[in-house]
Amino acid sequence: MHFRPAFAFCASVLATLILATPSYAARCGGDFNTFVAAMSQEAAASGISQGVISQALGGVQQDGGVLAFDRRQRGTFNKSFEQYVSTRVGAGRINAGRAMLQRHAALLSSIEQKFGVPRQILVAIWGLETDFGKGDMGKLPVFRVLSTMAHDCRRTELFQGELLAALKIVQRGDLRLNDMIGAYAGEIGQTQFLPSSYIKYGVDFDGDGHVDLRHSVPDVLASTANLLHTSGFKMGAPYGEGTANFEAMREWNRATIYRKTIGYFADQLGGR
């Protein structure tokens, strides 16, 4: 997994940042266990079972390392595009991406037909986020991360919403509790969806009854396409800086340099 940028720039985060966040009842700051108890009540009121709540939040600990990382990483992307892209899109990754285009050609064709997002864009995102699912998807317990971030008062409503969404993922049976492992802002899976984006955009494309963004390549790629399609991405239109498609990718990642890197990588995969 690549070195993840500041939370403000994390992939899939914008879906949450752009939408109005509802107001939640738990008070940030103060005693952590009291906060978790309040969040547990909030979750129960939202229809989460007591079994899921107790398994996910019982004994959850605050993680000072997550807070330190979040404060340290805000405001990255200070490289030029040329400097940044040279570290992210090399010959090895391009060749691996082209192999993925061939291996999953039929799947990508069906996703293109349904969602109208070109395969090169999807494979580029997949490669940049987790090296096509072979890289690091994060090693942190999602509920520990989100409880810690929600307790912190800077963005408490945002992360209270993410915490409830993560509980819904388990409640729906999409992922087991021991699969709820992610990155420093709670991102999950092969294209690093925040839990709220997982709930909103997740697609069961392999037809097994669950949206599995850790293990199911069809679900991963279709869900990524669904996010971009819902954001207004149009098949066959240019996606370079200044275009409507470039703006639609802002829902994926608001950093211009990152979206330019997606486009550059997609061009390399397409032989341009």
UniProtKB/TrEMBL annotation:
CDD domains: Slt35-like. GO terms for molecular function: peptidoglycan lytic transglycosylase activity. The keyword Signal applies. Residues 32-240 form the Transglycosylase SLT domain. Residues 1-25 form the signal peptide. The keyword Signal applies. Pfam families: SLT_2. Keywords: Signal. GO terms for biological process: peptidoglycan catabolic process. It comes from the Bacteria. InterPro entries: Lysozyme-like_dom_sf (IPR023346), MltB-like (IPR043426), MltB_2 (IPR011970), SLT_2 (IPR031304). This is Lytic murein transglycosylase. It comes from Bradyrhizobium lablabi. The lineage of its organism: Bacteria, Pseudomonadati, Pseudomonadota, Alphaproteobacteria, Hyphomicrobiales.
